[in-house]
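2024-03-11 09:14:02 INFO queue: dequeued item Glutamine--tRNA ligase, len=697
2024-03-11 09:14:02 INFO validating residues
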Amino acid sequence: MASEEKSLNFIEQIIEEDIKNGMSQQKLRFRFPPEPNGYLHIGHASSIALNFGLGIDYQAPVNLRFDDTNPEKEEQEFVDAIKRDVEWLGYQWESECYASDYFQQLYDWAVEFIKKDKAYVDSQTSEAMAEQKGTPTMPGTDSPFRNRSVEENLDLFERMKNGEFPEGTHILRAKIDMKSTNMLMRDPIMYRILHKDHHRTGSDWKIYPMYDWAHGESDYLEGISHSFCTLEFLPHRELYDWFLDQIYDDNKVRPKQREFARRNLSHTVVSKRKLQQLVKEKHVNGWDDPRMSTISGLRRRGYTANSLRNFANTIGIAKRDNLIDVSVLEFCIREDLNKTAPRVMAVLDPVKVVITNFPEEKEEWLDAENNQEDDNAGFRKVPLSREIYIEREDFLEEAPAKFFRLTLGKEVRLKNAYIIKGESVVKDADGTITEIHVTYDTDSLSGSGTEASQRKVSGTLHWVSIAHAIEAEIRLYDRLFTDESPDTHKGKDFLEFVNPNSLQVIKGYLEPSLKEVQNEDKFQFQRLGYFTVDKDSTAEKLVFNRTVALKDAWEEKGKKEENVINNSLKEINKYFKVGTDEERNAVEKSIGEGLENVSNFSLLQNTLKKNINNNKSSLLFSNFLLKFSVLKTADIEVETLHKLYSMSLKSESPFVRFEVIQNLKKDEVNFDAFSTQLADLRNSEKSESVLEVLNTL
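2024-03-11 09:14:37 INFO prediction written
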């Protein structure tokens, strides 16, 4: 790989440096080590692509090792799902391994630790242990059981193994350094008692190793050369190395732990605990719900393995955690399906169109191109009859000049068919249009080469023949969370941001070529988006999931909300320039109406923080954010909120002082902290309106 003309990421640079320093490339071995306590998610996909990608690049074996050390949370279902996901992504492991394969060896090593006085059995309560462990700024103190004799420790540890003690009565701890600045080195736990059956070892064990003890030793036993993990394990590296120091044999490969940044995805969560909560509380319909960030969910939604691999390559490997916009993932699937997905016609919000000059008994089968991006995709036949469905939004009885779809008196083309002209409508008693009557130009068949077929019209519509249409259940999936970072807001439950419109189930009408579709078949519904056949689909009832729309509606919505913020900031300046209360009230009303419609919580929070400065316009705007938007004082860090209050009360502008006092009146939690500042302001205030509101406090 070193000879390739490409830019290496820092992980590859580490490997290249090790090879340069004498490590044989034949000794390279990597691993992907999931814990089988849930389904894999999009973050795991990046880790899978990293480790297996290194295996491909360096022609080195990669193990799939299950970190199955906690029988309370692990199940065979998760093991099977993980294997299925890794294979689906296109990777093959060298060896299928389990931490439980090494339980006996880990136990034997632990006994050796005790004999060398490097481990002891602690019998404190968890509360007492937490207290004696100290804090990051205060060293810990020794356990009263730290100096038990080797003989007593060996006896207790064996009895723990035999199941003689209840859970929580004893643990085995490594004897390292209770004064270490790294709290993980303060006599970490190696074993705890658990009277739980293991999905592989059954009831053989009553004690189970902790992750930090099992992980590095498993790497060592498997001959792993490089153990890559996410940044939260950086403090664990010192312990990883200490455990290896106690057992390392110079004749074997010593694994090296190195860390890379977690790549979080916007509008979702990737915490297994939170994903499990979504499943258990039925916010979604299982681990493979197409709204979930799990690989199984993304696959069911219609994402391809190729799109996920491309996504992993696109975002790359970094040293700092960051938030990747989900639009990057959506771009990857659009790009992939654009090349491979056949184009078909479907109508999801139908209105009936009657082609009045098309003979009632006639049906005409027309040629339709399957995919203009693929020269080998060929053509299919689609039927045209007198009555068809089009999308309701594709017709307006009275249309503006820039409406390029069907309206009365104007022409549009039916995709793959003829030019039609709107003539009249039929309405029900409520005034809803139930039928649109049109005529068609018999000489205008698409691709026929006639003069009429080459006539330019304002737009092209997709459609389906009513007589031939297949009914199907269409599941319109959207982002599961309304906020870009739902689980990072202090004091906010991430469930508060669950999108109530993340799934809409409707009836759609499809062209007849889709009658024989199979699970996971993928199509572009022309002008609507990419859709895949769901596993719930049957011959009697087809079910399609929307994978992604053709355009990013969230990007448009996000731009609109950013524009509202930017325009409101501009309008604030008018507030100070107008001369009357009536004009100021009008400006405030306009700003308030705009802010009330901004739903992006992160945008609002970030905007508030950016505008806490000595500029009177910025301070007034920040106070308006509290007054009109969905932000509440409880949503804001106390330090940030107090800074806003303090600076606003000292502002030169009476308008700013007036608004901050109004906000303080509603803030029962923080009001008392500013009582002295409010009293001082009352003694010096010149503005009658500010004094009036002060006197109401």
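2024-03-11 09:14:37 INFO annotate: The first strand starts at residue 30 and ends at 32.
2024-03-11 09:14:38 INFO item closed
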